[in-house]
Design goal:
Layout lengths: L4 E8 L4 H14 L3 E8 L7 E9 L12 E6 L2 H6 L4 E10 L6 H4 L9 H7 L3 E5 L1 H7 L6 H9 L7 H15 L4 H30 L3
Parallel strand pairs: 1-4, 4-5, 5-6
Antiparallel strand pairs: 1-3, 2-3
Helix pairs in contact: 1-6, 1-7, 5-6, 6-8, 7-8
């Protein structure tokens, strides 16, 4: 990664995109980074598309990530991940939830939902770690845990320890919803494990493809 870390978080309103970005920012601030972030929400509370830009480092002048410079793309919804793929640098990493949540523009007939957005992102040459954060959250008994699952997934790709990010997650819920502390701890661990498993599968598949027939 560059001296400044650029993270783009995208999804649909109600998935916790902004909350996840805020927690990532709080973790970076706790380590003394200069942090800038900005959000664009289209009818966020009604299921509209949401994108959050987060930049942190020794000194950051602008919150806006320019196309082709994002280090990480955290996509809560696969079609949104595909739509924002162009923001990644060539060596960037996409982490994508496979759970689909159709945005209103599709229902209105303004946009055709892609047949396989994750395959399309991979076909464009982007490194992708894909996992089902939605199903993990549902199995834990609360679909709103999806944003903590996503944070667990990205924790291995940050320029600081996963423990720092987990502490920021738990601090948020300790103050607001202490009863959900253990569930969020489990969600974070499950997201991290799911991303590690998906990355290992990608490595195994690449090795198999490289073996001569």
């Amino acid at each position: 990664m560059s001296e400044t870390t650029n993270i783009l978080v995208v999804g649909i309103g109600g998935q916790g995109v902004m909350t996840a970005t805020e927690i990532l920012a709080e973790a970076a601030i706790a380590l003394g980074h200069d942090v800038k972030k900005t959000e664009v929400a289209g009818m966020a509370q009604r299921g509209g598309v949401v994108s959050s830009h987060l930049r942190f480092g020794q000194r950051v002048l602008s919150p806006q990530i320019t196309p082709g410079t994002a280090d990480l793309l955290l996509a809560f919804e696969p079609a949104e991940g595909m739509r924002w793929r162009h923001m990644l640098r060539p060596s960037g990493q996409a982490l994508m939830n496979v759970g689909r949540l159709t945005p209103p523009v599709v229902d209105l007939g303004l946009y055709d939902y892609p047949a396989d957005p994750i395959a399309a992102v991979r076909a464009a040459g982007t490194r992708v770690v894909a996992f089902d954060a939605t199903s993990i959250a549902v199995k834990l008994g609360e679909i709103r845990l999806g944003n903590t699952v996503m944070l667990g997934a990205i924790s291995a790709y940050l320029p600081f320890s996963a423990d720092v990010l987990e502490a920021a997650v738990l601090k948020r819920f300790a103050a607001r919803k202490p009863a959900l502390l253990e569930l969020n701890r489990q969600a974070f661990a499950a997201g991290r494990a799911a991303a590690e498993q998906a990355a290992a599968h990608n490595t195994d598949s690449a090795r198999e493809a490289a073996v001569p027939a």
